[in-house]
Design goal:
The protein contains six helices and four strands; from the N terminus they run H-H-E-E-H-H-H-E-E-H. Strands 2-1-4-3 form a four-stranded antiparallel β-sheet. A hairpin with a 4-residue loop joins strand 1 and strand 2. It is globular and about 55 Å long. The chain has one domain: 2-Layer Sandwich (Beta-Lactamase), CATH 3.30.450.150. The chain has 168 residues and is α+β, with helices and mostly antiparallel strands. Helix 2 packs across helix 6.
């Protein structure tokens, strides 16, 4: 009887809050998405930056939902680098921060997260943001260390960030 009473009281308190929240939420929500051209530019610049440093890598750009938009593999990069790059980018979408930050901040569950299909908690994935919103992520793999992968991704993002900052 007490449990039922608590449920009724809780429902009485929550229902008005939901009704007021629903009144403020529009039926249609606008979402920013990156173009194929922007995704390709970020992937290309990531791969070329690493190539200039002597590394053969792959870069994968995913959209805000974790769907692959562009996958690019340099000539001598292993095919496995494509999967690893994509899974690093997906980790960014999951956590909303770089894959290196997730690795550092969630060491307590990193091993468990690495068992989630499509995720790899390793350094080398960065968010792509426009006007304060994450619109996707880039993951790079193939350099001798995630720190070097991340540098290549960051340099690529630096070349387009000013354009992204002024998108409305």
């Amino acid at each position: 009887m007490i449990t039922l009473y608590r449920i009724i009281i809780s429902s009485a308190l929550i229902t008005p809050m939901l009704a007021s929240a629903e009144a403020e939420i529009p039926d249609v929500i606008s979402v920013k998405k990156m173009s194929m051209e922007l995704a390709a530019e970020i992937a290309t610049k990531s791969v070329k930056t690493c190539r200039d440093q002597g590394y053969q890598v792959s870069a994968v750009v995913v959209d805000r939902s974790g769907n692959t938009q562009v996958a690019m593999r340099d000539v001598h990069a292993s095919r496995f680098t494509l999967q690893i790059a994509e899974e690093k980018a997906n980790a960014v979408i999951l956590g909303g921060v770089s894959s290196g930050e997730i690795r550092k901040n969630r060491e307590d569950i990193r091993q468990e997260l690495n068992h989630v299909d499509g995720l790899l908690i390793m350094q080398g994935g960065l968010p792509i943001s426009a006007a304060g919103s994450i619109i996707g992520a880039v993951g790079v793999s193939g350099a001798p260390g995630g720190d070097k992968d991340e540098v290549c991704a960051q340099k690529a993002l630096d070349t387009v960030q000013e354009r992204l900052d002024f998108i409305e």
